[in-house]
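Checklist before submission:
- one chain only
- standard amino acids only
- sequence pasted in full

Submission:
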Amino acid sequence: MKHLVHYFKDNYQPEITIMPELSLGIVVVIPCFNEPDLKASIECLARCARPCCAIEVIVVVNFGEQVDESVKKACCFNYKEAKELQAGLSVNNFTVHCILKEDLPHKHAGVGLARKTGMDEAAYRFMKLNRPEGLIFSFDADSVCDDNYFTAIEDHYKQYPGTQASSVYYEHPLGGHDFLDNVYSGIAQYELHLRYYNQALRFASLPFAYHTVGSSMVCTASAYAKIGGMNRRKAGEDFYFLQKLIPLGYFSEINTTRVIPSPRVSDRVPFGTGRAMMKYVDESQCEMQTYSLEAFLALKQMAVNLPSLYRSSKTKQKSLLHLLHPYLSLYLEGIEYYVAIDELNDNCADYPAFEKRFFRWFDAFRTLKFMNQVHNDGPWSKQTVTGEAVKLLSLLHVSPATPSNAVTLLEQYRQIERRRP
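Returned file contents:
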C-alpha cells in the first residue's frame, strides 16, 4: 500500500468522482482514439463470465491539439458511444466509466498518455479501497477476448498470489470477412515474427522473453505504482512498461484465456502491428522478414559463458569476450562491458545476484538495439520469417508442419506457447 500512497502524494485529482464498489477487484483500461470498433470491444467485455469481484471499465477517449476536425468529431462520437454504453451496461458489478481528454499537448498526445490517464485512475481507485492487490488490465478499443477472460485471470492470481504482473495470451484472427486476404496473410507473418522472436530469446536463455502487447497486459495496483506508472510514449509504451515490471519478479504468462487484437492497418505510430501491416500492404510484400537466427545463437553463447564472469579477473574477462562472435564483442565493448562487469562483481554477493543484475544491464532494450545494429551494419541480414521459424523449430526438436507456410508455422508456435505453465 505504501507504493500507492507515495505514487499519489502530489494531490492527484481523479477524473472519476463516483466511489468504487467495495468489492472492486478488476479495472480494465481502454485508450480510444478514433476507434470504429469501441462498442464491440466493450460489449465483448460485458458478455464475459463474471468473476467474484466487481469490474470497472475505464475508457479514455483522447485526441491531440493538432488533429483534423474529422478526427475530433470521430472521437467525440466515441465518447458519446461510451456514455451510452455506460448507461446500458453498468449493472451487476460491471461499470463503465468514460474520460474525455481533448486537445492534449502535441508533444505527449498519444496512446502512452491515454493508457497512463486510465491506469492512474484505476490505481487511485484501488488506493481509496486500500486494495494494492487490485488488478489493472490493459486492453485496446479494437480488441475482443474469450468469454473466460476475467475468470481465468482472476483464478491465475488466486493460484499464484505473489504474482505482480502478467502477459496474457493473444491470437490475431487469421481469416474472415472483416479484412482483405492480404491483411490476413500479413498478420499471420507478423504474429509469427513476434512469436519467433520471443522463442528465439528464450532459446538464447535470456530472462526477459515475454510478449509485450498493449492489449494483453495485467498488473497489480501496487506493482504499477512501484515502477512509477505508465509512461507517456507515443509508441512502444507497452514494451517499456513491461520491461520495468518484469525485473520486479513474480511475472507470469496467462495462457488459459485469449485476447484477440485487430490486424488492421494503421499509421498512427512509427512501429508496431498497425505500422507493420501498413508496410506489408503498401509494398505488396509476399514474405515478411525477421532477425537471423544466427544473431540469437551469438547471444546464447554469451548467456552460456556468463557464470565464468562471476568473480573474474580482467584477463579472464577479455578472454571470454574474445570467445564471443566478433560483432557481439564489439557491441559489448561499446556499452562499457568491462566497467559493468567490474561493478557487478564488486556489488554481488553470489552468482544468482550477479546474473540478475547482469540482465538488468544487458536488458531487452540493449538486446533489441544489438539486433538492429548487427542487421543494419553487421554480418547478418534479415531473413524470411518462415525460413527462420523453421530453423528454430528444428533446434527446439519440433518437426515443422507440412506445408511450412506462415499459418501452419504460426499454429505450431502458438501451441508451444499455450503449453507453457
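Reviewer check: The first strand starts at residue 24 and ends at 32.
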